[in-house]
Amino acid sequence: MATAKKTKPRKKTTAKSNAATRRKATAKKAKAPSAPKAAPRDPRLPAVGSTLTRTYKGRDFKVKVLADGFEFEGETFRSLSGLARHIVGYQISGPVFFKLAEPKGK
After folding, report:
1. Exposed/middle/buried for 97, CB within 10 Å: 0-12, 13-18, 19+?
2. pLDDT at site 104
3. Which of 98, 91, 38 is nearest to 64 (CA)?
4. Domain span at residue 89?
5. Which residues pair with 54 in a beta bridge?
6. Does residue 105 lie in a domain region?
7. Which pTM does this prediction carry?
8. How many CB atoms lie within 10 A of CB 70?
9. In a domain? residue 27
10. Looking at the domain assignment, is residue 60 inside a domain?
């Protein structure tokens, strides 16, 4: 004895609702992707072209501030914190390391 498969009846759609659905779908497709906006520059950072100097463990470190990062010994870093991590060997705030900001909690 075979059992019949029960399915729910489909909703009837009207021509108006189909047209509205198509308009919504085409309106979504018509939008062009927007170009990513550049993040605003951190106000704690010095002007582009200036040099940051820091003495750490008896060694002087000079870092040039670029428009898109920081240059240290011929190598470019995207963030000041990444550069500070490279120098000290552990995670540290770049602005705090170069004494541009006070550490949190003080």
Report:
1. buried
2. 82
3. 98
4. 51-97
5. 61
6. no
7. 0.59
8. 21
9. no
10. yes
Question: Would residue 91 count as lying in a domain?
Answer: yes
Q: What is the pLDDT of residues 37-89, one digit of tens each?
A: 767 777 778 899 999 999 999 999 999 999 889 999 999 999 999 999 999 99
Distances in whole angstroms, Cα of residue 76 to Cα of each of 44, 55, 64, 70:
19, 20, 9, 6
Instruction: Categorise residue 53: left if φ over 0, alpha if ψ from -120 to 50, beta otherwise.
Output: beta
3-state secondary structure of 23: helix
Q: Per the structure, how many domains does the chain have?
A: 1
DSSP letters spanning 48-68:
TT-EEEEEETTEEEEEEEETT
DSSP 8-state secondary structure symbol assigned to residue 86: H
* CB 70 within 8 Å of CB 76: yes
Residue 27 backbone class (left: φ over 0; alpha: ψ -120 to 50; beta: rest) = alpha
